[in-house]
Amino acid sequence: MNEFEIIERFLSVDSVKRKDVIKGIGDDCALLKVPRGQRLAISMDTLIGDVHFMSEANAADIAHKAIAVNLSDLAAAGAEPAWITMSLSLPKADPDWLADFSRGLKRMLEFFGVSLVGGDTTRGPLAITIQAHGFVPEQVFHRRDQGKPGDLICVTGPVGGAALGLMVARNELSVNPKAAAELLKKYQTPYPRIAAGIALRGRATSAIDISDGLLADVNHISQQSGVGALLRWERIPLSPAAMQVEDAEVRMRAALTGGDDYELCFTVDEDELDAAKNALETVGTDCIPIGRLTGKPGVRLLRDKEDIQLEEMGYKHF
Q1: Residue among 269, 242, 270 at smallest CA distance from 256
Q2: pTM of this prediction?
Q3: Which residues have C-beta within 8 Å of that of residue 175, sequence separation ≥ 6?
Q4: Which run of H or of E encompasses 81?
Q5: How confident is the model at residue 309 (pLDDT cuts 50, 70, 90)?
Q6: What are phi and psi of 220, to 5 degrees?
Q7: Span 166-184, pLDDT tens digits
Q8: Residue 168: which H helix or E strand, with range?
Q9: Strands 264-268 and 288-294
Q10: Domains by residue range for the chain, with CATH
Q11: How far is residue 181 from each of residues 39, 187, 193, 199, measured CA to CA in Å?
Q12: In this structure, which of 39, 122, 151, 222 has its CB flanked by the most CB atoms within 10 Å?
């Protein structure tokens, strides 16, 4: 099976018909139209087998995660997803694997109303690179560098579950079967907070998706905004499944430095907190204050009014 047969049989996903796609897959370039009054938001991530996902995982779940982590970046920006391009590297052309991957891909594209408009396939180690494109109105793009001292730091949901799910997948963590299944699901098939990002337009002063770990991503906002951050451990939310992990230190490390949660972390003026909560409630998402931006540089964590020494922030590629 050659490259063009793979594309024709498994990757020509055209079930999402968008009026802004003038020409999609089939030419050297896609031809696309940005609506009037909108700005184009673009992000790209690469997922490598046995680095960002388990190579032996279900192919539909791999496709799901590849889409989710890229759309999550658009969610952090407050953008509405529109198109993706995809580069797929495969060690071999396995029709069964490709059919499963295609099903997961199609499911996610249809769920979010996104068109696959181009890309590439090649032989090599298992890897998926996706470039996601979305629209955001002028003046409401969420950035990392607009936080100010006094802003509340909030998250849209529990953290640490994906890192614990990876430990379950690697047989490094023993937990009851129901909790294990929930943690694995959080790691393997996260959902980007697209609706939450849109609901926060004009309310969040800064935002980021939690991909490298809570501390690391709060630190990104802190550094780029030129402010400090103070987090309170007792306010950081854990899922019921995560609370089933008996070792409190394992739970804490996962919540603080584990990646792949893809909740949003954002800052909001204290006077806008109720408005943000109400806006997020309309899309079924939580708004959980966990700390505050400060004028003192650096990220601090308080537990029982005592500073916790932070030796690591989160995941690093190098």
Answers
A1: 242
A2: 0.92
A3: 164, 168, 183, 241, 244, 245
A4: strand 80-90
A5: confident
A6: -60, -45
A7: 999 999 998 999 999 999 9
A8: helix 161-169
A9: unpaired
A10: 3-137 (3.30.1330.10), 152-307 (3.90.650.10)
A11: 40, 10, 21, 30
A12: 151
